[in-house]
């Protein structure tokens, strides 16, 4: 990146406010022609908001965007496309039932005497595609080709329409290794043609493989921009997570080794998570660490049977069991508090009372209703024990705050008296007080002999309660940290794939 | 128990009010509306007619309420009525007893429900499409059973189900009342109602909480098929014949309407069978108004539509909100901004 080059796109002081939240706070971004610029950050960091401001999907509330030195304020994605900013999304935004050629030229078909000229369109399509190294039949419907090819077609269309700045929003999320290579070769060609490319992804390896620079966002602010040749994955991860690499030693006495409860062997599902082995003992908290998309949630869902594994065996107390669906898992006294409370957890219009007894009632079967008195006793006990704040247990659960919804979901599973409880991001979106309460609860459950598997992006939290931490990376279990190895610094290093410091 | 009654009353207040208004309309156009006589061992009167004629819709809306609570819909109930009527008629014509005919018809109805349930729950076809299949095919099947004719019969036992009385009360009234109460008791006394509501509100969460949504979905379509079959037998018994073309024609729409008038959301979730039954009575009372007012029959459908639109508009949240604001702004002390707000929000 030559210093004397003028940026093709220059954003300064971009701000965007949502009711009650600052989504972007004075964000700066410079894009030079011929560079691939990675935009990094955890969920909610402001990546997509920034992109939407650039493409005109949102109106920014402050700041300026200069394209080739001219200030622009696109009012729609169409307008920004005309200005030269093209976007390709993870979900291909094309029409799968039209042919490849039609998709490429939709809205600007070559005309001949007032009619579309299919032959010219086909020839032009073939030419365009060959520039991108694709030799496919432009007359086939787009859906006949793999997602990667569809991505390239989408890129070809975006480049043809815009041609200055190309934004790729998680283009590799659903691609396998070879397809990523195909896409990267296309990106390199475009880079040589002088396009400025913004690349958004959760896969750090891919960032380092293709990008020149990276800008890291956190909580709507730019943490920093780095030349990737001069930085390490550890530094980038630290910037994303906002953790100091303090080497606090995990000083809790190792938990007494309880009996082995669950043994997973070679357990996995293609395209979701690579096969892994995992033992869980009674009275143990196994933490799952990793960046977003690294396979934490996938691991949790697979073990609970929410998604069916396609290989591997499961032993529960040395007896082989099947985990085909959540009902089977619940029958074996498993529980799962899912990551997305709203869509997978609460049943919004049912009362808090009904939500708390739902799993227990489902396990009992519909023809054996819980006694009213027992329900009240149970619900009141958990409301008190977990300090759920509500006007009445008969109010719909959707009216509760996020903290209290999460506590009610915990109560739902505790009411089933589980042996093995999986918590996926138990403290996401929860205020400080409730946060501490939930961590204390995890400790207490562990002391009572329950086995827990906790996936979290809060590293300090994982360090606080885990007896072991499994580190995931690119949908693989890559490392296990035990005892004194469990520090936030070591977790960050393991996520960034560097050697772990041996405990002193 | 008293608390349950009170909350049930609170839930059905709008339906009770609307029913009262429509009955009052009946009274205005026909002052003798509420008079009930006891003649020839049987109750007579317009009110009894409403209860009696409303029986098919009432029966259908019991099953339809459960189906809609799961976020589904059952378009096939009218056709299932025709099939069940045809089965019952052909069985008695073949010399079987009325008991066999009834059981046979109900079994076929359950089979139809099972078919719908499997399409929806196992093959995951959208309910409106899945049940459309049987809605179209069902009348054809019924015609095959009756061999294209109106299959008449004289079996007194079967006729008794549609046209007879028990201790002076027409049998259909007793049947729908009994089934409505029985199904309400089953879904509310067991956990079935709550689990059905949970599926309708958030099937994903319900599955993760361990609810067997597949079996429950099949169950509700099965119940709907059963209700439709019972309605079909009653209609056939009433006219002493199975008319494959006209039995239950468009009645699925009345049943859906009854459920909606009953305040149940088509998006699934919370449901009340009693409110749906009141909805069915409201529809029948509207029919009665039109009949008794002596208006030419060609006005019937238009007037029915107008009354129903009025009912739905009164129930709509937007109108409720506007009424609330009008009432609030009618308070003696009006802040200066309020009239402007009112103007904006009622536009």
Automatic annotation (TrEMBL), chain A:
It is a peripheral membrane protein. The keyword Protein transport does not apply. It is found in: Cell membrane. Keywords: ATP-binding, Cell membrane, Membrane, Nucleotide-binding, Repeat, Sugar transport, Translocase, Transport. SUPFAM superfamilies: P-loop containing nucleoside triphosphate hydrolases (SSF52540). GO terms for cellular component: plasma membrane. Its main location: membrane. GO terms for molecular function: ATP binding; ATP hydrolysis activity. InterPro entries: AAA+_ATPase, ABC_carbohydrate_import_ATPase, ABC_transporter-like_ATP-bd, P-loop_NTPase. Residues 9-244, 247-499 form the ABC transporter domain. The keyword Repeat applies. It comes from the Bacteria. SMART domains: AAA. This is Sugar ABC transporter ATP-binding protein. It comes from Roseibium aggregatum.
From TrEMBL, chain B:
One of its GO terms (molecular function) is transmembrane transporter activity. It is a multi-pass membrane protein. This is ABC transporter permease. It is found in: Cell membrane. It holds the Pfam family BPD_transp_2. CDD domains: TM_PBP1_transp_AraH_like. One of its GO terms (cellular component) is plasma membrane. The chain crosses the membrane at residues 12-30, 50-68, 75-93, 99-121, 128-146, 158-187, 215-237, 249-267, 274-295, 301-319. PANTHER family: ABC TRANSPORTER PERMEASE PROTEIN YPHD-RELATED-RELATED, GALACTOFURANOSE TRANSPORTER PERMEASE PROTEIN YTFT.
């Amino acid at each position: 990146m030559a210093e004397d080059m003028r940026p093709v796109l220059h954003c300064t002081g971009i701000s965007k406010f949502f009711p009650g939240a600052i989504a972007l706070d004075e964000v700066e971004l410079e894009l030079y022609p011929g560079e691939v610029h990675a935009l990094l950050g955890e969920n909610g960091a402001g990546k997509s908001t920034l992109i939407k401001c650039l493409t005109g999907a949102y109106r920014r509330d402050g700041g300026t965007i200069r394209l080739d030195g001219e200030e622009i304020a696109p009012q729609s994605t169409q307008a920004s496309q005309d200005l030269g900013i093209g976007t390709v999304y993870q979900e291909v935004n094309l029409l799968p039932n039209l042919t490849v050629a039609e998709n490429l030229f939709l809205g600007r078909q070559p005309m001949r005497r007032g009619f579309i000229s299919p032959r010219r369109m086909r020839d032009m399509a073939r030419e365009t595609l060959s520039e991108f190294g694709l030799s496919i039949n432009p007359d086939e419907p787009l859906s006949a080709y793999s997602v990667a090819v569809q991505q390239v077609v989408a890129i070809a269309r975006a480049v043809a329409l815009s041609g200055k700045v190309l934004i790729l929003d998680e283009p590799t999320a659903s691609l396998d290794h070879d397809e990523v290579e195909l896409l990267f070769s296309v990106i390199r060609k475009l880079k040589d043609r002088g396009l400025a490319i913004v690349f958004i992804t959760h896969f750090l390896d891919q960032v380092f493989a293709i990008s020149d620079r990276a800008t890291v966002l956190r909580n709507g602010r730019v943490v920093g921009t780095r030349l990737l040749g001069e930085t390490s994955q550890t530094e980038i991860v630290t910037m994303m997570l906002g953790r100091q690499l303090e080497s606090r030693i995990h000083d809790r006495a190792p938990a007494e080794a309880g009996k082995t409860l669950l043994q997973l062997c070679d357990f996995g599902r293609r395209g979701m998570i690579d096969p892994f082995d995992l033992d869980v003992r009674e009275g143990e908290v196994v933490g799952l660490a990793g960046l977003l998309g690294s396979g934490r949630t996938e691991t949790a869902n697979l073990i609970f049977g929410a998604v069916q594994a396609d290989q591997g065996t499961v032993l529960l107390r040395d007896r082989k069991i099947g985990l085909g669906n959540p009902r089977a898992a619940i029958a074996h006294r498993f529980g799962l508090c899912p990551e997305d409370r709203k869509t997978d957890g609460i049943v919004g219009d049912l009362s808090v009372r009904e939500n708390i007894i739902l799993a227990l009632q489902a396990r009992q079967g519909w023809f054996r209703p819980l006694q009213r008195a027992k329900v009240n006793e149970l619900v009141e006990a958990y409301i008190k024990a977990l300090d759920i704040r509500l006007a009445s247990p008969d109010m719909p659960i959707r009216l509760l705050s996020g903290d209290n919804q999460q506590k009610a979901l915990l109560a739902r599973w505790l009411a089933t008296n589980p042996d093995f409880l999986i918590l996926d991001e138990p403290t996401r979106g929860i205020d400080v007080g409730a946060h501490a309460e939930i961590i204390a609860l995890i400790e207490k459950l562990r002391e009572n002999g329950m086995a827990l598997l906790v996936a979290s992006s809060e590293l300090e939290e994982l360090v606080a309660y885990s007896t072991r931490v499994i580190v995931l990376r690119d949908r693989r279990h890559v490392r296990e940290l035990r005892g004194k190895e469990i520090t936030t610094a070591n977790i960050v290093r393991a996520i960034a794939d560097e050697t772990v410091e041996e405990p002193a | 128990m008293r608390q349950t009654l009170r909350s049930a009353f609170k839930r059905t207040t709008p339906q009770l009010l609307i029913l009262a208004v429509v009955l009052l309309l009946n009274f205005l156009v026909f002052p003798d509306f509420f008079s009930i006589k006891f003649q020839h061992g049987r109750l007579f009167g317009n009110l009894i007619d409403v209860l009696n004629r409303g029986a098919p819709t009432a029966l259908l809306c019991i099953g339809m309420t459960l189906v809609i609570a799961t976020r589904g819909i059952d378009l096939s109930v009218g056709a299932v009525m025709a099939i069940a009527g045809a089965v019952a008629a052909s069985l008695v014509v073949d010399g079987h007893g009325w008991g066999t005919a009834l059981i046979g018809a109900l079994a076929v109805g359950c089979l139809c429900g099972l078919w719908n349930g499997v399409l929806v729950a196992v093959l995951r076809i959208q309910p409106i499409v899945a049940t459309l299949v049987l809605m179209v095919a069902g009348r054809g099947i019924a015609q095959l059973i009756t061999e294209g004719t109106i299959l008449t019969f004289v079996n007194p036992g079967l006729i008794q189900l549609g046209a007879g009385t028990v201790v002076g009360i027409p049998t259909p009234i007793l049947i729908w009342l009994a089934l409505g109460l029985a199904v309400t008791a089953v879904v509310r006394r067991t956990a079935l109602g709550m689990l059905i509501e949970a599926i309708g509100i958030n099937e994903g969460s319900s599955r993760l909480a361990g609810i067997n949504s597949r079996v429950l979905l099949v169950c509700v379509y099965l119940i709907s098929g059963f209700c439709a079959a019972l309605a079909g037998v009653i209609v056939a018994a009433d006219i002493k014949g199975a008319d494959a073309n006209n039995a239950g024609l468009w009645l699925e729409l009345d049943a859906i309407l009854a459920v909606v008038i009953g305040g149940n959301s088509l998006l699934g979730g919370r449901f009340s069978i009693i409110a749906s039954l009141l909805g069915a009575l409201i529809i029948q009372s509207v029919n009665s108004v039109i009949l008794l007012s002596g208006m030419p029959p060609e006005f019937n459908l238009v007037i029915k539509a107008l009354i129903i639109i009025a009912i739905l508009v009164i129930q709509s949240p937007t109108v409720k909100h506007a009424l609330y604001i009008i009432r609030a702004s009618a308070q003696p002390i009006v802040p200066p901004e309020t009239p402007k707000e009112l103007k904006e929000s009622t536009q």
